[in-house]
UniProtKB/TrEMBL annotation, chain A:
PROSITE patterns: 2FE2S_FER_1, 2FE2S_FER_2. InterPro entries: 2Fe-2S-bd, 2Fe-2S-bd_dom_sf, 2Fe-2S_ferredoxin-like_sf, 2Fe-2S_ferredoxin-type, 2Fe2S_fd_BS, Beta-grasp_dom_sf, Diverse_Oxidoreductases. Gene3D superfamilies: 3.10.20.30, [2Fe-2S]-binding domain. The keyword Transcription does not apply. CDD domains: fer2. Keywords: 2Fe-2S, Iron, Iron-sulfur, Metal-binding, Oxidoreductase. This is (2Fe-2S)-binding protein. Residues 1-76 form the 2Fe-2S ferredoxin-type domain.
UniProtKB/TrEMBL annotation, chain B:
The lineage of its organism: Bacteria, Pseudomonadati, Pseudomonadota, Alphaproteobacteria, Sphingomonadales. Gene3D superfamilies: Aldehyde oxidase/xanthine dehydrogenase, a/b hammerhead (3.90.1170.50), Aldehyde oxidase/xanthine dehydrogenase, molybdopterin binding domain (3.30.365.10). Pfam families: MoCoBD_1 (PF02738), MoCoBD_2 (PF20256). It comes from Blastomonas aquatica. InterPro entries: Ald_Oxase/Xan_DH_a/b, AldOxase/xan_DH_MoCoBD1, AldOxase/xan_DH_MoCoBD2, AldOxase/xan_DH_Mopterin-bd_sf, N-heterocyclic_Hydroxylase, OxRdtase_Mopterin-bd_su_IorB. Residues 217-300 form the Aldehyde oxidase/xanthine dehydrogenase a/b hammerhead domain. Coiled coil: none annotated. This is Aldehyde dehydrogenase. It comes from the Bacteria.
């Protein structure tokens, strides 16, 4: 029996402690934002926040998450009341297929919590573990810049003007 | 026109106009052959009607009006992340004169929507958008005509606004009321005019996509997110890569693994099922240890591009011009090529299937639900009516990836467990290992200048396998080859011009009085290949636009001016001028290790016009490139959604830089050796351009021109041209990656 705190709710999981969080989220808890992309820690589509830091849920066993605070992007807002990072992605229409975007949002959230005023290079570096096949990169970066401003910070040296 | 009508027009309400003898609405080429990737839609039955109305002329195939006046629009095309859903809604809302929120959309579903073949070739707006626009205009006209009968006035005196038909005397009727006594099962008339351009509310304006907020907040948006009562998860068991098979799998041992409910076997096809996913993931590790073999002849050693170049061909001259020109004074001959590329969807292929009461339902991210249904019918030995394929979104796939194969896998697995839905997901390694690849290609060009610096001669030959093995029969599916019923793949075929496959965009838009262009179709396929976004356009435009720059340099002129000198199409000229102006082309100065490149093409010579300019810097010690800026100009005819169009062009540029500068599928003699993102790296954020701008040239009232695949070719060539200016070395063999750049620079002693 493992106790997990996810988006502020405690869950008791009666399963294999080695099971990665991703499958628990999707199979048991009906939380679909984190996506399966590779299961290998290479693509970032399963990214969630653990104690505010980005974590690839496909390779994070639930046993490692007791006493940790797990946040998925369901915890950041809803379609009706999106969180600031989600709102910035909506404002920039930063999605094509959108499959990678929940992971991107989680990563951006973690970045801006840790550093509300990152440099352009630090922003790109923070987003680097997440892959996007649709080439939505420019819009994703615009959304992160916009979110940084909306959250009271900003990008120190933005490569493009921020809306 | 009365004052009332004029005011309504200004508000966006439309006067109902019928031109009995005037031309059609917006004419478009008919035919929905899926971008020429074969296995297209049914034949035209009403060729006088535009877009896919030619195949499905009845209005109720496209639009239905509910009693409350809300409209449902049906398209045979699929939302692939290209934003087609919102664009079609904008078109329908405008032409119907309904508020956007009262229009909803049903996409590709064999039980509900018209058979529009495959969603490919940047044809969704051209075919489906045109059909829906004209169907909606017809429906609005019929509603008004019905009101005219009721009011005993002439239809031409009525106006429509927000779902209400109004007479001049103030009488009005809602669409819902009118539709109740109206059959829409009538053929569209070609003489119903679409709304005037200045009366449109949505076309040409940015409307936020409806699918984005749910996708960003965790709604079940993809086939991968589907969950149904009693659903089982499944994994398919096969060798590590295309061309291989497991030699002696112990299925009984696999079935005994914890969490495995059942192993389904049909011939050599095998899948394992279980209630939860994690035990299946672990069981796949055991499957990964099973010995495997390659039965086919070994793959040729070394670069497979050479193998393709040397295989037997079925040459076809697709352009031969031999006007008399001034004598050639300077000739350049060059070979340009590209390796095999992967679609590499971020989410592996997945499908849900349900076998119930003797009928199979499959939820799939296939780009062609109708041809898939045909293939499944043969595989499952069922009549077509007993199979329903419903499109659900997957991760962006950009061509024929594992979507159809996994649908067959899921259907076979589901057949063993009647009444229980089965969700079968490929592993990342299976996706990389089994998806049909984008074909490797070789082009050989030779061009000559006359004494005036004009192109006097041009030859282009392109070697390539087919660019579509999209399934239409059981043997086109991986599972079809495993079930042991003697199914064989359809014979490979070239996709004829004007769309072209390997030779797509091999014919330049430039003025070439003497030219020979040959499609060297290579039927024999060393590895499994199929459609990848843009088909041959990526390679051919790369080659043509690189050669144009080489010629411009030889002629001692500016490459943009050189292009303009060889063009007569005013829209091509406008796109190039716009970009040159906005990019500040004339002001750019190449410094050492920094250069700018320009390229242009009109996709398929019938789609959108697109020019791309790139400014990049090279680090000579490492060969690493940084794209400082990538800009584009695009003319996609009438623009439905400017932001949606920019999204497509931006994405195409970034994706193309990834293909062109970063990607290559490698092989040993038994199989491909790209299994995951470490053995097949793609562009990450550090390599994305520093900044990008897309300039849209809108052409209101003109036909829609497909744009989803317009920027890949120009972006590839603009990158190569910028690199050539930055390094003074011309690289002609993709990928133009750091390693190759460093070798090229080393070779010339520039360090
Ligand atoms: S799915 Fe977790 S990193 Fe790819
Ligand atoms: S938007 Fe499709 S993978 Fe990123």
């Amino acid at each position: 029996m493992i106790e997990l705190t996810i988006n502020g709710t405690r869950h008791r999981i009666d399963g294999d402690p080695a099971e990665p969080l991703l499958y628990v989220l999707r199979d048991d808890l009906g939380l679909y934002a984190a996506k399966f992309g590779c299961g290998l820690g290479q693509c970032g589509s399963c990214t969630v926040l653990v104690d505010g830091k980005p974590a690839q849920s496909c390779i994070t066993p639930i046993a490692a998450l007791e006493d940790r605070v797990v946040m998925t992007i369901e915890g950041l807002g809803s379609a009706r009341t999106p969180g600031p990072v989600q709102q910035a992605f909506i404002d920039e229409q930063a999605a094509q297929c959108g499959y990678c975007i929940p992971g991107m949002i989680a990563r951006a959230e973690a970045l801006l919590r840790a550093d509300p005023r990152p440099s352009e290079a630090a922003m790109r570096d923070a987003m680097r573990p997440s892959l996007c096949r649709c080439g939505t990169h420019m819009r994703i970066l615009r959304a992160v810049r916009r979110a940084a401003v909306a959250m009271g910070g900003g990008i120190v040296d933005p490569a493009e003007p921020v809306s | 026109m009365s004052g009332v009508a004029r005011r309504d027009l200004l508000r966006g309400g439309g006067l109902v106009v019928l031109f009995a003898l005037a031309g059609t609405g917006v004419g478009q080429e008919g035919g929905t052959s899926g971008g020429g990737e074969g296995t297209g839609a049914p034949p035209e039955v009403a060729p006088e009607l535009p877009g896919s109305l030619a195949e499905f002329p009845h209005l109720d195939a496209w639009i239905r009006i509910a009693p409350d006046g809300a409209a449902t629009v049906f398209t045979g095309k699929a939302e692939l992340g290209q934003g087609i859903g919102m664009a079609l809604l904008q078109i329908a809302a405008d032409e119907l004169d309904l508020p956007l929120e009262r229009v909803s959309l049903v996409t590709a579903d064999t039980a509900r929507t018209p058979d529009e073949g495959i969603t490919s070739g940047s044809q969704s707006l051209q075919n489906s958008g045109t059909a829906i626009a004209n169907a909606a205009a017809n429906v609005r006209y019929l509603l008004a005509e019905r009101a005219a009968q009721l009011f005993r006035v002439a239809a031409q005196t009525l106006t429509t606004t927000n779902g209400i038909v109004r007479a001049r005397d103030g009488r009005q009727a809602s669409y819902g009321e009118l539709a109740a006594s109206l059959s829409l099962h009538v053929e569209a008339r070609p003489d119903v005019r679409r709304k005037r351009v200045d009366a449109r509310d949505h076309i040409g304006r940015d409307r936020p996509r409806r699918d984005i907020p749910p996708k960003l907040t965790g709604a079940a948006a993809y086939v991968q997110d589907m969950r149904m009562p009693g659903m089982l998860h499944a994994r398919v068991i096969r060798g590590p890569a295309e061309g291989t098979r497991l030699t002696a799998p112990d299925f009984d041992a696999i079935a005994r693994l914890p969490g495995i409910a059942q192993v389904v076997r049909v011939g050599d096809f095998a899948a394992m099922l279980g209630p939860r996913e994690w035990p299946l993931v672990q069981a796949m590790l055991a499957v990964g240890r099973v010995p495997w073999a390659r039965d086919d002849t070994p793959l040729p050693q070394g670069d497979l591009r050479e193998a393709i170049r040397n295989l037997p061909t079925e040459p076809e001259v697709i352009l031969a011009r031999d006007a008399v020109t001034l004598p050639a004074v300077r000739r350049i001959t060059a070979r340009y090529d590209r390796p095999y590329l992967m679609h590499g969807a971020i989410g592996p292929s997945c499908a849900v299937a349900l076998w119930k009461d003797g009928a199979m339902t499959v939820w799939t991210h296939s780009q062609g639900v109708y041809p898939l249904r045909s293939a499944l019918a043969e595989l499952l030995d069922l009549p077509l009516e007993r199979i329903r394929c419903i499109h659900r979104e997957g991760a962006g796939c950009y061509g024929h990836n594992g979507a159809d194969d996994v649908a067959a896998d899921a259907a076979l697995a589901a057949r063993a467990v009647p009444g229980r839905p089965v969700k079968l997901t490929w592993t990342r390694e299976q996706e990389h290992g089994w998806e049909p690849l984008g074909p490797a290609m070789v082009t050989e060009l030779s061009a000559a200048l006359d004494a005036n610096g004009h192109i006097a001669e041009w030859t282009h030959a392109v070697w390539s396998n087919t660019h579509s093995t999209r399934p239409s029969q059981a043997g086109d599916l991986l599972a079809g080859l495993e079930v042991g019923r003697g199914f064989a793949p359809s014979p490979p075929r070239a996709i004829p011009q004007p769309n072209g496959g390997g030779d797509r965009n091999a014919i330049p838009l430039y003025t070439l009085p003497r030219a020979t262009i040959t499609n060297m179709f290579v039927p024999q396929m060393p590895v499994r290949v199929s459609a990848l976004r843009g088909l041959g356009a990526h390679m051919n435009v790369f080659a043509i636009e690189s050669m144009i720059d080489e010629l411009a340099m030889a002629a001692g002129g500016d490459p943009v001016a050189f292009r303009l000198r060889h063009l007569s199409d005013p829209r091509a000229i406008a796109v190039i001028r716009t970009l040159a102006d906005r990019f500040g082309w004339a002001r750019q100065k190449s410094e050492r290790w920094r250069g700018q490149g320009f390229a242009f093409a009109r996709y398929k010579n019938s789609g959108a016009y697109c020019a791309v300019a790139i400014d990049l810097r090279v680090e000579p010690e490492t060969g690493k490139t940084t794209v400082l800026r990538a800009d584009a100009a695009v003319d996609a005819g009438e623009t439905v959604s400017p932001d949606g169009l920019r999204n497509q062009i931006e994405g195409g540029i970034v994706q193309s830089i990834s293909w062109t500068a970063h990607e290559e599928v490698r092989f040993d003699t038994a199989r491909r050796t790209a299994f995951d993102w470490s053995s097949y790296p793609i562009l990450r954020f550090d390599a994305a351009p520093q900044r990008m701008a897309v300039h849209v040239i809108d052409r209101p009232g003109q036909p829609f021109l497909g744009a989803g695949e317009a920027s890949q070719g120009p972006a590839a060539a603009a990158f190569a041209n910028a690199l050539a200016r930055a390094t003074r070395q011309r690289l002609r063999s993709m990928p133009l990656n750091a390693e190759r750049i460093r070798i090229a620079l080393d070779g010339f002693g520039t360090r």
